[in-house]
């Protein structure tokens, strides 16, 4: 018995009908390991002020001379952003009262910010 194959324009005998399917399989093979990889857990350092932003990915440890404004400046974020990430400071009035405590860790970048 003799079998034959038709060689189409792509030269591999499969024809162009399989090309879209092969591309889909290729994408799945490339993307699957990325989707299956678990995210690295973020460890919140201690001591830290409560409540802290729940998905913080970058922290800064305050030194004795730090204020809310210096924390914001050193980490290139707005003062309002710093306050919203670290509600335990007590808002702007808490910043004026000196509620930044040396040795404590503050959230300076939440997950999702550039």
TrEMBL record:
Residues 58-108 form the LysM domain. This is LysM domain-containing protein. It comes from Colletotrichum higginsianum (strain IMI 349063) (Crucifer anthracnose fungus).
């Amino acid at each position: 018995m003799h079998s034959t194959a038709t060689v189409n324009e792509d030269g591999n005998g499969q024809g162009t009908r399989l090309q879209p399917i092969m591309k889909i399989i290729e994408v799945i093979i490339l993307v699957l390991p990325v989707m299956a990889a678990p995210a690295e857990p973020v460890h919140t350092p201690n001591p830290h002020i409560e409540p802290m932003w729940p998905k913080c990915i970058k922290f800064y440890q305050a030194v004795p001379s730090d204020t809310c404004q210096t924390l914001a400046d050193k980490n290139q974020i707005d003062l309002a952003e710093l306050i919203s990430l670290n509600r335990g400071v007590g808002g702007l009035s808490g910043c004026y009262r000196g509620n930044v405590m040396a040795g404590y860790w503050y959230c300076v970048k939440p997950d999702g910010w550039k």
